[in-house]
Every structure is written in C-alpha cells, then in structure tokens.
Design brief:
By secondary structure, the protein is α/β, with parallel strands linked by helices. It has a domain of 207 residues: Rossmann fold (3-Layer(aba) Sandwich). Helices cover 44% and strands 14% of the residues. The chain has 21 helices and 15 strands. Strands 3-4-14-9-10-13 form a six-stranded mixed sheet, sandwiched between helices. The longest helix has 20 residues. Bound molecules: pyridoxal-5'-phosphate. The site of pyridoxal-5'-phosphate has 17 residues, from helix 11.
C-alpha cells in the first residue's frame, strides 16, 4: 500500500513506514492511502479475538511490515493485560436496537488508548525498516486525554523517549495526577504556566527551531509527534468498527450484511473518520452520525457545506471535543471531492486566511450520503447521563452522553429502526465530577474533591472504579516540574540524557 498527500499529486509512493515516521506530509497535507483496500472476507474474522481481528484489518494498510510483525504489535498492544476487559472493546446493549461500544478499558480510561497502545510499536518498527538508529523523541502538548495515553503507550518502549507538556491551569485534578505520577524510564512530564495554547505554541516552536533540532540530532534524537493526524493513529481505529459489527453478528443481533448505524462523539474527526474508512472497505455501515457539543462547527458543516470557525469557543463538560478546527476532516474532503488535491488545498488555504470555506454541491451531497450530524447543549448532555442511568442503570461519560443526546434528538423516544452503536469514548469515572452531578445531584456532590467523588459515585451506583484511576491521589508524584513557556527549550535540552 502506498500513500500520498491530500494537497499534492506529484509524489504518490510514500511507504507506510515513511508515513508513520513523518506524521505530516511535507506540503502540510495529510497522508492518505492511494487506494482503499476492499476487505471481502471480514466474516472469516467472526470467531477471532480483538487482537487477531485488528491485525487482519490493519495488514493491508501497513505492508511495510510482515504479517508476523503486525501480529506481534497487536499482541503487545491488546493481549498483554493492559486492557481491563477480555474483549478489549466490548459492546453493551441497552435496548433492542441500541448498543454502546466501550472503548475505554485501556490503561488511561479513554478511547485514545485504542490507537496509542499500538502506535509506539509501529513507530519503533518503522524506524527499524528505514534503518534509522536515532532515538525517536516524542513531544506532545496536551489538554488532557492524549498526553496521558501517549505516556502509557510509549513508556519503556526501547528506542523512544517521550516528553509531555501540559498547562497547569488547563487540566482536571484527575488528569493532572494521572500525568505527574507517570511511571517509566523514558518519560518526562512538565507543567507549563498558562493555558493549552501556551503549551502547544511552545511545542510548535520547538519543532520549527532548526538550531534546536540540529542540536538534538547531534545527540542522537529525532523529533516525532503522536498527534491524531498521524496515519498510525487512524488505522488501528478502523478495527473496532469491524469488531463491533462482528460481535453483533456473533451474538445474532443482526444477520451478516445487515446495515448498522454508528453515532460518534467527535472532536478532531479522527474516530469517526476511521468509521468512514471501515465503510469504504466494505463494512455494511449505513450512516455515521457525527455528534458535537456546543462547539458545533461540524454539525453546521455537514448540514450546510460551509465550514466556519469564526464563532465563540465554548469550554464544555466534554473538553476533549472542544475544538473548532477538526484536522482530520481534510482526509474526508479529499476522499469525497474526487480525490482532487487542488480543491483540498484551496479550501485549506481559505480556512487559514478567513477561517471559513464552502465546498461544492457534489462534495456536499457525497458527505450527506454518508453522514448525519447533530449537537448537544450542556443541559442535554447532563440529561442524557441521568436518563441513561435512571432507565438502564448504566453510567456514561459526558462525551458519550453528547452522542446519546444527539441520537435522542434525531430519533426521539421510539429510537431508530436500524440497530445503532453509540461509540463510548471515556470511562464515566474519568470525568466523574459531571457524571456525579448528573446522577447524584448537586447536594450530594457539593464540597467533595474529584478523588472523593470517585468513591462516592462507585458506592452509589455499584460500578467499580477502573484500576487506572483508583488510589490515584496517594501515588508518588514523579514529575513535579513547573516552568514558564520561555523555559521549554532549555528545559528540554537539560533533561535529555
Ligand atoms: C479525543 C476524544 C474525543 C474526540 O475524538 P476525535 O477523534 O478527536 O474526534 C471524544 N471523546 C473523548 C473522551 C476523547 O478523548
């Protein structure tokens, strides 16, 4: 399988290994496969484990690696006891036609683990293929979920070292404790005074600083990023769409070939885009429903064909979806506009200059054929949490609740005729403050810390606190450093061995 950039039609023979190491194409576009492999024998995966299904589905995209290598990567990621559920990504049915796909049984309790548990093996394997002996230095600025998931993925992976910068004022208590207690011999976590933009701005500067990267290279390091536009993060996500469908067939909820809908809580458009690729590979998926919070730029885009980021930014209770520019959308535009890099480039330039662009009617129609879209207000999100608990004795986190609320808005109390899977992206305990408020009410949560609420919520509902979060407040702090943005470069050089 070869890859090309969404903004350029000259070079179309990047290998999977190159694409994983480079992350972003040299022209600023995103790497996409030159053709989408058809996966006709998916029914043969019915009796296989998650890890074997994932290996079979990823293989055609990652042919820089042998079947044996891909199998080994999947075993290391999904079969080594790091996921707290034997099925890795189990389905939970709540009504005749409605299911939740739980993608949060990994070590950090959010769906980012599905890809970030395997990405480090792909990165290390790709460097070996390219006979590149430099250490990969992963730099990430995080507003929460990604940083912790990247730390857990890269910890103790030979040939890699990871540095995560997070804003002191920009993450929850739980997220902060998850990061500053991180274990591993190759990990560094540094708090930056200021907000997420300060941390991210600083990281971008480091990547763009030729002198610094030369100094790092001289010391044997090559910079890499683990962010969600890397193809190596997208391709593992295709597997869980197939796996959910296969489980529905295996449990005789559907016949093989019967169409199914997915509702996906969406931020950077990475998760839902993997669903689109699954459909293009032959999975009988009818509609993908894109669910947004009050930052509903994607809802408007899918409904009108006009992308417009010129609007108020809302800080919501589903913070991992507080995004106004969804980077992975570029890949969808490319696939559905007739794979015309000039069109894509034009739209992205307009977005850069004016903050908005409008796609042509044919491309818009193609998008509408695949996608529905809706958004949930904060109040609707709280209601979805409390209603799902009251009616089904099932706790969902605020991101998942956005998807549930959008489903309810579209289909009402009767629900959809078509079997529908809501993609559940975080453990309810990870965002327990909002969940406890919705389920227990204001009086019972008042005055309690996030850590006390973990226990309170668990006692009140009978659901167990996941291992990644229990006892967090008493773990040893291993990364106490807090610096100013201006100190990022010297700090980085100082801490690398
Ligand atoms: C990252 C994240 C999302 C959004 O996923 P995208 O791939 O960015 O669309 C949703 N929910 C949770 C809990 C997340 O961590």
């Amino acid at each position: 399988m070869l890859y090309r950039s969404t903004r350029n039609d000259k070079k179309n023979n990047y290998s999977a290994a190159e694409v994983i190491l480079q992350g972003l194409a040299p022209d600023g576009g995103l790497f996409t496969p030159v053709e989408i492999p058809q996966f006709k024998q998916w029914e043969s995966l019915l009796e296989l484990s998650y890890s074997r299904r994932a290996a079979a589905l990823m293989q055609p995209y990652l042919d820089s690696f042998s079947e044996k290598e891909i199998n080994a990567f999947c075993t290391a990621a999904y079969d080594s006891g790091r996921f707290g559920h034997p099925s890795v990504a189990p389905l939970r049915r709540i009504t005749k036609n409605l299911f939740f796909l739980e993608l949060w049984h990994g070590p950090t309790c959010a769906f980012k683990d599905m890809a970030l548990q395997i990405l480090p093996h792909l990165v290390r394997g790709a460097a070996a293929k390219n006979r590149d002996t430099a250490q990969r230095l992963i730099l990430t600025a995080t507003s929460g979920d990604t940083g912790k998931a990247a730390l857990e993925g890269f910890r103790d992976i030979p040939g890699t070292r990871i540095v995560v910068f997070f804003p002191v004022d920009g993450v929850s208590e739980i997220q902060k404790m998850q990061m500053i207690t991180q274990e591993g011999s190759n990990v560094h976590v540094i708090a930056i005074r200021g907000n997420f933009d300060a941390a991210q701005g600083g990281v971008k500067e480091i990547f763009a600083d030729g002198e610094l990267t030369a100094e790092l290279a001289a010391r044997g390091y090559r910079l890499s990023s683990a962010n969600s536009i890397n193809w190596g993060r997208l391709v593992p996500q295709i597997a869980y769409y197939f796996s959910a469908y296969l489980d529905l067939v295996r449990e005789r909820e559907i016949r093989a070939g019967e169409p199914v809908d997915f509702v996906v809580p969406t931020g950077n458009f990475g998760n839902i885009l993997a669903g689109f690729y699954a459909r293009q590979m032959g999975l009988p998926l009818r509609k993908l429903i894109c669910a947004s919070n009050e930052n509903n730029v994607l809802t408007d885009f899918i409904n009108t064909g006009c992308y417009d980021r010129n609007r108020t930014f809302h800080c919501t209770i589903s913070p991992s979806m507080d995004i106004l520019v969804s980077s992975n959308l570029e890949r969808l535009l490319f696939e559905l506009c007739g794979r015309d890099p000039q069109k894509v480039k034009g739209w992205m330039e307009q977005l850069n200059k004016t903050g908005r662009y409008r796609i042509d009617p044919q491309t818009h129609k193609a998008i509408k054929d695949f996608f529905d879209a809706g958004y949930a207000t904060e109040e609707e999100t709280y209601t979805a949490i409390s209603r799902t608990y009251r009616e089904h004795n099932y706790l969902i986190d605020p991101h998942t609740a956005v998807a549930r609320a959008v489903y309810d808005k579209i289909y009402g109390d009767a629900g959809s005729e078509v079997k529908t899977v809501i993609v559940s992206t975080a453990s309810p305990f990870k965002f327990n403050a909002s969940v406890a408020l919705a389920v227990l009410g204001r009086d019972r949560v008042a005055g309690h810390s996030e850590f006390e609420l973990l226990e309170l919520l668990s006692k009140a509902t009978g659901a167990a606190v996941p291992p990644g979060l229990s006892g967090l407040e008493s773990r040893a702090v291993r990364h106490p450093m807090v610096i100013r943005r201006e100190q990022m470069k010297e700090t980085l050089l100082g801490l690398l061995p």
